[in-house]
Amino acid sequence: MISPSEFAKELDSIGLNFYTGVPDSLLKNFSSYLDSADSVYSHYICANEGNALAMGIGYHLATQRYCVCYLQNSGLGNLVNPYLSLAHESVYSIPSLLLIGWRGEPNSRDEPQHVIQGETTLGQLELLSIPYLPVGPSSIVKDISKWVHKSLIIEKKTCALLISKNTFSNADPLVSSELFCSKTFFREEALKQIISEFSSSIFVSTTGKTSREVDEIIRAMDNPPPAFLVIGGMGHASSIAMGIALSRKNEMIVCLDGDGSLLMHMGSLAINGSLKASNFYYILLNNGCHESVGCQPTVARNIDFKNIASSVGFKNYFKASTLQELCEVLPVINNDIGATFLEVEIQPGSRNTLSRPTRLPIDSKINFFKMLSGF
C-alpha cells in the first residue's frame, strides 16, 4: 500500500501542494492525512467537484502553479463544465492533476450504483482527452510522480490518477471531536422516530448510510411506507422528492437529506422553497461531516439554515438537537401544512452491523411503484 505522507511529499517535490476536492471512500486515508497535524499542505473540501476545479483555476491564476483536485469517479459529471469551458487547453489552458477514486473498477466487487460508472470511467476520460494512469496498492510512488511531472508540468495537460480500492495505507477515519456533542444523538435513532411519525407518507432518502438505515427500518415494519433510496446522484434527493411532490399533491412527501448532499447542490433548496409545495417536508440530518466516505468535515454546523429556509420560501423551520426535542416537534410538523424545513443535529456514527439494500436498484423501483399504487 502507498503511504499518504510519502505520496504527498513526492507530489510536493514537483510543485504540487494545493489540494481541493470532494471526499471519497477510496481516498479517505489520503484526504484524512491532508487534514492531520502532520500535514503542511493547503487543503480545501468543496461542495462539489466543479467548485473544487474552479478553486484550482483561481489558485493557478494567482500563482501560476497547479492544483491537485480529488474526487470519486461519480463526480466527473460535475467537473465537466468548468473543465471544458474554462480549464481546457483550447480555452484558458489551466491544467490540474485529478485524483479519482475508481469506484466500480472492472473485475472488482462493488455496489450496483457504481458498476456502470466504473465501466465508463476510462471512456469518459478519453472523451475529455485527459490522460490517465491507474494506481493501485503496489504502484511505485516515484514512477507515479515521474508520469505526473511529464504530463502536467512538462506537457501542461490536465491528467488523472485512477486510484483503486485499498491503495492508501492508514485506515483510521478522520473524526473531529468538534463534531460530537453530548446532547446529540445518532441518525438511526432520528430516522426511526421520523418514519414512525410520518408512516403514511412517501419517503425519499439521500445516498450513503442514510438510505441503508432507511432500508433496514422499513424492512422491519409490518406496513412499511413507500421509500425511494437515492443510492447515487449525491445532492439530488431533494429535487427527486420535489418531482414526486408536484405530481402527487394529495400525499405527504418527506425528503431525508444529509448536510454534504445539501451543500453539493444547494441551489436546489432555493428552487424547492420557491415552489411552496404544501405537501413537501424537507428534513436535514446534519452531522457536520461526510460520514459515509470517512467523516471529513463539512461547513454545515456553521450555517444558519433557519434564515436560509425562510429566505428561499419555506413556510416553517424547526430544529431538534436531542431525541426528546425531535419527539416533541414531529407531531407539530405532522399536523401542519407542509413546505417545512426541519434541521436535526445528529452525531456521526452508525452500527458496524448496518447492512446494505439486498434488492437490485431496478427491483427497488418496481417495488416502489407497487407500494405507490396502494396509496
The gist of it:
The chain has 375 residues and is an alpha/beta fold. It is built from 14 helices and 15 strands.
Structure description:
Helices cover 41% and strands 18% of the residues. By secondary structure, the protein is of the alpha/beta class. Helix 11 (267-275) packs across helix 12. It has 14 helices and 15 strands. The mean pLDDT is 93. The strands form three sheets. Strands 7, 8, 9, 10, 11, 14 and 15 form a seven-stranded parallel beta sheet that branches. The chain has a six-stranded parallel beta sheet with strand order 2-1-3-4-6-5, sandwiched between helices. The protein has helices at residues 4-12, 28-34, 49-63, 76-87, 112-127, 141-154, 187-197, 209-219, 237-247, 259-264, 267-275, 305-312, 323-334, 361-373, and strands spanning 18-21, 42-45, 68-72, 97-101, 132-135, 159-163, 185-186, 202-205, 227-229, 253-258, 280-286, 289-290, 296-297, 316-320, 340-347. It folds into two domains: 4-163, Thiamin diphosphate (ThDP)-binding fold, Pyr/PP domains (Rossmann fold); 177-373, 3-Layer(aba) Sandwich (Rossmann fold), CATH 3.40.50.
Biggest sheet details: 7 strands, parallel
User: Strand tally, please?
Assistant: 15
Question: Which residues form runs of ≥5 with pLDDT under 50?
Answer: none
Name the CATH superfamily classification of the largest domain.
Thiamin diphosphate (ThDP)-binding fold, Pyr/PP domains
Please give the alpha-carbon distance between the first and last residues.
52 Å
